[in-house]
Design goal:
- This protein is α+β, with helices and mostly antiparallel strands and 72 residues long.
- It is built from one helix and three strands.
- A three-stranded antiparallel sheet has the order 1-2-3, with helices on one face.
- The relative contact order is 0.23.
Length: 72
């Protein structure tokens, strides 16, 4: 598992899902969730690594982390 991932994470509470949701804007289609803040964060790391490994296997480009992104 790659513990040196530097993508920006966006975490929020979803009333509809009754879960914390984590998104990584730089990784297309990426979402993770969890019933607690720390579970969502742990799941985010697992799924981020799986996203990157799948992209590598498919020969897709893996975006370079850009650090803090700006959203309106």
């Amino acid at each position: 598992m790659n513990n040196d991932i530097k993508y920006e994470l966006i975490m929020y509470w979803s009333v509809e899902d009754d879960l914390y949701i984590v998104e990584v804007p730089e990784l297309s289609g990426y979402k993770a969730d969890g019933s607690s803040y720390f579970e969502a964060l742990s799941n985010a790391e697992i799924i981020m690594n799986e996203w990157i490994e799948t992209a590598k296997l498919m020969g897709r480009e893996i975006p370079k982390p850009k650090g803090k992104l700006v959203f309106a």
